[in-house]
């Protein structure tokens, strides 16, 4: 073989190897969790993988989310017309009315020990099962949901350990929080229709918050998920018998109750000994629409977490309102310009087109209806 021919053969071989490596990289699918596994344990996409996520933007929900996002981030620059005192925590001891409401949230909450264990990254399914088993009603709910069509099992699940493995930790966390909040809402005398309105919204916000995490540098998707479940917990400390609707304007709530539900929720998180960043996100999850960023007495990392939670909350409201209802749901109120550098808009848009998001939203709605 001549030297020239040999060089051509080698060059062709190298070319084929390069092509093969490129195809193997671009064609590699993101690993899915095992059946019944925890979605929160799946790797989160970086910027490049977020941009290549399969496009479900042509679905009705995809179009609705895209429209709400455009309104949230594309509106005219506005100036915040409120001072930071709107979202300031009152001094401890808490004012009497807030203290009474917070005591309802912590008294006799079902699954409280299991929730505390869920916050421990080293907890085992067996330890969780032991905590849940102490509450017969909660045990029944977990087994019922694990055996529901949501998880498509071919045989029934009879043990809590199997049920936890089937549901995954994220779904279990959502169920446990909804049980605690349902118990607190019933003790507060909150009307059943308001409770039924609240749980699906919390679930949708949690799923959306976790999925949009890649658009916010250095945010923890698991903490965002928990923040989504808890972001409206303050409503259960403020509303009670005789209330037929929630107020969506924190200014009006503050005038009525002395604090708004975001501040009450931040206080509740502190009382639950949850991480400070989580409490700050709940406290400030409406601030980006009312108070300029530089006026807030908070760390940038906490404000970024609160902004992600705020967008997930507004997008969930937009989905609930349906086609043409984004404005009516308040989801189209634009984020103040001073916050917009904290996020990556194109990545956020790509996250909302991921089909997995829409699958999980449907699953969360079904789970909370069953619970």
Structural key phrases:
single chain, 371 residues, mainly alpha, 18 helices
CATH topology label:
Hypothetical protein af1432
Please state the overall shape, judged from the principal axes of the Cα atoms: globular
Distance between the termini: 74 Å
How are helices and strands ordered from N to C? HHHHHHHHHHHHHHHHHH
Number of helices: 18
Q: Biggest sheet: strands, sense, closure?
A: none
SS class: mainly alpha
What is the CATH architecture term?
Orthogonal Bundle
Instruction: Report the top-level CATH class.
Output: Mainly Alpha
Beta content comes to under 5%
Q: Any low-confidence stretches, pLDDT <50, length ≥5?
A: 1-57
Nearest-angstrom radius of gyration?
23 Å
Tell me the count of domains: 1
Helix content: 55-70%
Mean pLDDT, to the nearest integer, reads: 77
**Strand elements, count:** 0
What does this structure look like?
The chain is mainly α. It has one domain (44-107, 168-370): Hypothetical protein af1432. Helix 5 (112-118) packs antiparallel against helix 9. The longest helix has 24 residues, at 3-26. Mean pLDDT is 77; it is low at 1-57. The N and C termini lie far apart (74 Å). The chain has helices spanning 3-26, 47-51, 60-74, 96-106, 112-118, 125-133, 136-146, 160-167, 169-187, 192-211, 221-230, 235-238, 250-257, 261-271, 276-283, 300-321, 345-352, 355-370.
């Amino acid at each position: 073989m001549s030297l020239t021919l040999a060089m051509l053969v080698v060059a062709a071989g190298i070319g084929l190897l390069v092509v093969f490596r490129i195809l193997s990289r671009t064609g590699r699918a993101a690993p899915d969790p095992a059946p019944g596994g925890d979605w929160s344990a799946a790797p989160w996409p970086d910027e490049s993988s977020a941009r290549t996520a399969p496009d479900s933007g042509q679905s009705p929900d995809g179009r609705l989310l895209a429209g709400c996002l455009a309104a949230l981030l594309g509106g005219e620059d506005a100036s915040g017309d409120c001072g930071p005192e709107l979202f300031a925590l009152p001094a401890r001891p808490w004012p009497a009315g807030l203290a009474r409401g917070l005591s309802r949230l912590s008294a006799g909450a079902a699954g409280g020990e299991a929730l505390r264990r869920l916050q421990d990254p080293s907890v085992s399914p067996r330890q969780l099962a032991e905590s849940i088993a102490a509450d017969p009603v909660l045990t029944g709910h977990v087994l019922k949901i694990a055996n529901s069509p949501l998880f498509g099992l071919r045989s029934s699940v009879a043990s809590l350990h199997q049920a936890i493995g089937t549901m995954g930790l994220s779904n279990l966390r959502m169920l446990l929080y909804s049980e605690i909040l349902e118990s607190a809402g019933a003790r507060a005398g909150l009307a059943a229709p308001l409770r039924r309105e609240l749980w699906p919204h919390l679930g949708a916000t949690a799923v959306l918050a976790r999925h949009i995490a890649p658009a916010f540098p250095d945010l923890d998707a698991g903490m965002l998920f928990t923040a989504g479940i808890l972001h409206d917990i303050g409503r259960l400390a403020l509303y009670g018998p005789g209330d037929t609707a929630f107020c969506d304007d924190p200014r009006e709530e503050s005038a009525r109750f002395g604090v708004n539900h975001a501040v009450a929720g931040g206080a509740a998180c502190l009382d639950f000994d949850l991480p400070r960043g989580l409490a700050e996100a709940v406290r400030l999850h409406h601030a980006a629409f009312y108070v300029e960023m530089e006026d807030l007495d908070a760390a940038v990392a906490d404000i970024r977490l609160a902004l992600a939670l705020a967008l997930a909350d507004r997008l969930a409201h937009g989905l609930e309102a349906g086609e043409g209802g984004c404005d009516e749901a308040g989801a189209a109120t634009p984020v103040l310009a001073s916050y917009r550098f904290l996020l990556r808009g194109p990545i956020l848009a790509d996250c909302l087109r991921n089909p997995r998001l829409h699958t999980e939203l449907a699953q969360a709605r079904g789970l909370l209806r069953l619970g």
